[in-house]
Predict the structure.
Amino acid sequence: SCPSKPRSSCSLPTADDPIDESFHMKLYSNRDEGNINPVHIVIRREVLEVRRTVSGRVLFQCACCKHLPRGERAKLSTLAPQSIDNLYRSMVRFMMVHVPACGQIPKNIKDLSPKASRVVNERGTKKYWVKSA
């Protein structure tokens, strides 16, 4: 989350620190297979985008609703963990709060989200998230 904002919101990007349009990627890679649970793989491949502001601050954004004005998006559409060690926790919050509430995420992906909570402690997940970022 952002340092000076409530946990449910993130003010990045800002007018003073806009998105760097030249930087855009997915967190997903082929190495995800077998290292994290299948639901997280789908979210990393289909929903989460990695973006950066011009100052270099990294943020994660819902690719499905990013086109909407900020006030029309469901909570936690943009995540900016204060450190890479908080990435996994931010992702879990994203899946618990944003995914069910976002009207832009396809139903087939939303239906997977509750399954993630049952496999959240699958082998080395937190360490892999940090390493893969």
The chain has five helices and four strands. The CA atoms of residues 75 and 130 lie 23 Å apart.
